[in-house]
């Protein structure tokens, strides 16, 4: 369903999608509940296009988040990684923050050992996204997550400082 | 001492995940990559021994038969087309047999094959390491980061390895694809864990990636592998591999500790 909406990019074609399995299963289970059958496809169509870089599974993640919010247990337990985490958090949900085992995906623009550009590009992408969509735009969150995962904290601090001073060397 | 080393090699009770005195071989593999490295080493050694036997035989035979006592008048052969072709072609085929599996392993090591589940940043300092687990951050403020210092030489507890133990170990889950981002904050360092088959140089201003997937639970020891200053020898690396559930527990505990 997600693949028909637009042609998948190179990264989507070749990456192993653990998220998609979870979404499909969650969508299959939904008709049994009967109430919100159209929820997943409709969010797909309405999903606003993210910034010019669309090689990530943006709508898949959107639907995953939606369905998780609607029925936390089924959606969370489908993914093998989240399964373990949810077990622990269900017991002590009140005190412990939920641990989501998820990080920036492998990016085919940066297939080599040198990941300096990967980090930098994600940082620039986030700030371009914020500039285009405005602060607090939900579609920019994933870029924030990616650059925080990839960039050493010291670099982020320095770049933040440079942006404030207007001396940031990237295309913002 | 040698006996103990042999014991580690052949009478394996616990697997060898730290450097041993008088150690000759590799540490036991904890990742598929290390297993590949060990297998490649053994494959190449097969050819190495063949060559050693063949060359030794030629050398010993030549010395035995063609010396002043047994053969006072040397033969004057200066040209032999067949033998020259054979001894040119054949030795160049052998490196091919070594190169094919070697390149296959090399490219499988740095290829982007699967999406990693966790990114851990190992940041080298003079002379300690900072580890950042930034997958759980909700702002640019670091939520889970800690320094890993060596236990001083005069301070180890019973059972700890001298100059190999640290105060805060890197905790990783087993059977999970990990992305290690390695970078220093000052001078070049190197993040190396022999059991994981990983040695990744940390170059200032650059972040290097290395992927590991630890297959069994355990504590793995490594040392800084790029001369980084006076305390280079006192900058060990300790990786503690636990189950995914324990890892999630550990992360949430650390998050609570660091936020409070």
TrEMBL record, chain A:
GO cellular component: mitochondrion; respiratory chain complex IV
Protein known as: Cytochrome c oxidase subunit
Pfam family, one: COX6B
The entry's keywords: Disulfide bond, Mitochondrion
Organism lineage string: Eukaryota, Viridiplantae, Streptophyta, Embryophyta, Tracheophyta
Biased composition (Acidic residues): 80-95
Localization per record: Mitochondrion
Region described as Disordered: 1-109
Any single GO BP term: proton transmembrane transport
InterPro entries (alphabetical): COX6B-like, CX6/COA6-like_sf, Cyt_c_oxidase_su6B
Compositional bias (Polar residues): 32-45
Top-level taxon of the source organism: Eukaryota
Record field: compositional bias (Basic and acidic residues): 22-31, 51-69
CDD domains to which the protein is assigned, alphabetical: Cyt_c_Oxidase_VIb
TrEMBL record, chain B:
GO biological process: aerobic respiration; electron transport chain
Gene3D superfamilies: 1.10.287.90, Cupredoxins - blue copper proteins
Transmembrane segments: 44-64, 85-107
Cofactor remark: Binds a copper A center.
GO annotations of cellular component type: catalytic complex; mitochondrial inner membrane; transmembrane transporter complex
UniProt keyword annotation of NADP present: no
Keywords assigned by UniProt, alphabetized: Copper, Electron transport, Membrane, Metal-binding, Mitochondrion, Mitochondrion inner membrane, Respiratory chain, Translocase, Transmembrane, Transmembrane helix, Transport
Record InterPro entries: CcO_II, CcO_II-like_C, CcO_II_C, Cupredoxin, Cyt_c_oxidase_su2_TM_dom, Cyt_c_oxidase_su2_TM_sf
Compartments, record wording: Mitochondrion inner membrane; Mitochondrion membrane
Domain Cytochrome oxidase subunit II copper A binding as annotated: residue spans: 115-253
Matches recorded under SUPFAM superfamilies: Cupredoxins (SSF49503), Cytochrome c oxidase subunit II-like, transmembrane region (SSF81464)
A GO term, aspect molecular function: cytochrome-c oxidase activity
Membrane protein topology class: Multi-pass membrane protein
Top-level taxon in the UniProt lineage: Eukaryota
Positions of the Cytochrome oxidase subunit II transmembrane region profile domain: 18-113
Reactions that this protein is recorded to catalyse: 4 Fe(II)-[cytochrome c] + O2 + 8 H(+)(in) = 4 Fe(III)-[cytochrome c] + 2 H2O + 4 H(+)(out)
Cofactor: Cu cation
Function: Component of the cytochrome c oxidase, the last enzyme in the mitochondrial electron transport chain which drives oxidative phosphorylation. The respiratory chain contains 3 multisubunit complexes succinate dehydrogenase (complex II, CII), ubiquinol-cytochrome c oxidoreductase (cytochrome b-c1 complex, complex III, CIII) and cytochrome c oxidase (complex IV, CIV), that cooperate to transfer electrons derived from NADH and succinate to molecular oxygen, creating an electrochemical gradient over the inner membrane that drives transmembrane transport and the ATP synthase.
Family: Belongs to the cytochrome c oxidase subunit 2 family.
Record-given protein name: Cytochrome c oxidase subunit 2
Gene encoding the protein: cox2
């Amino acid at each position: 369903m997600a693949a028909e909406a637009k042609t998948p990019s190179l990264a989507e074609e070749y990456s192993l999608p653990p998220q998609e399995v979870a979404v499909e299963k969650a969508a299959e289970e939904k008709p049994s509940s009967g109430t919100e059958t159209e929820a997943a496809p409709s969010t797909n169509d309405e999903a606003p296009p993210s910034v010019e870089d669309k090689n990530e599974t943006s709508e898949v993640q959107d639907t995953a988040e939606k369905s998780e919010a609607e029925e936390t247990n089924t959606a969370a337990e489908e993914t093998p990684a989240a399964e373990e985490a949810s077990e622990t958090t269900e017991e002590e949900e009140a005190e412990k923050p939920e641990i989501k085992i998820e990080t920036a995906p492998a990016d085919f623009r940066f297939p080599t050992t040198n990941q300096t550009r990967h980090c930098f590009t994600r940082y620039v992408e986030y700030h371009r996204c914020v500039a285009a969509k405005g602060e607090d735009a939900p579609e920019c969150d994933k870029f924030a997550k990616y650059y925080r995962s990839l960039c050493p904290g010291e670099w982020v601090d320095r770049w933040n400082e440079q942006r404030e001073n207007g001396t940031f060397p990237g295309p913002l | 001492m040698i006996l103990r080393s042999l014991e580690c090699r052949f009478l394996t009770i616990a697997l060898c995940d730290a450097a041993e005195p008088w150690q000759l071989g590799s540490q036991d593999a904890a990742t598929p990559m290390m297993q590949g490295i060990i297998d490649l080493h053994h494959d190449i050694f097969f050819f190495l021994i063949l060559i050693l036997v063949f060359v030794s035989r030629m050398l010993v035979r030549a010395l035995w038969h063609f010396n002043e006592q047994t053969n006072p008048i040397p033969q004057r052969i200066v040209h032999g087309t067949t033998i020259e072709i054979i001894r040119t072609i054949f030795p160049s085929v052998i490196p091919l047999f070594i190169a094919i599996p070697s390149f296959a392993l090399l490219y499988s090591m740095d290829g982007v094959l699967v999406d990693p589940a966790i990114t851990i940043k190992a940041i080298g300092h003079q002379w300690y390491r900072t580890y950042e687990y930034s997958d759980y951050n909700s702002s640019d403020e670091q939520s889970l980061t800690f320094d890993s210092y060596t236990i001083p030489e005069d301070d180890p507890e019973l059972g700890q390895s001298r100059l190999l133990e640290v105060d805060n170990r890197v905790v990783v889950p087993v059977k999970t694809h990990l992305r290690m981002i390695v970078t220093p904050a000052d001078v070049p360092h190197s993040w190396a864990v022999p059991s994981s088959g990983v040695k990744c140089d940390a170059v200032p201003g650059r972040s290097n990636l290395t992927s590991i997937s630890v297959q069994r639970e355990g504590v793995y020891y490594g040392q800084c592998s790029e001369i980084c200053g006076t305390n280079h020898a006192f900058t060990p690396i300790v990786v503690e591999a636990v189950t995914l559930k324990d890892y999630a527990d550990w992360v949430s505990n650390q998050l609570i500790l660091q936020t409070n």
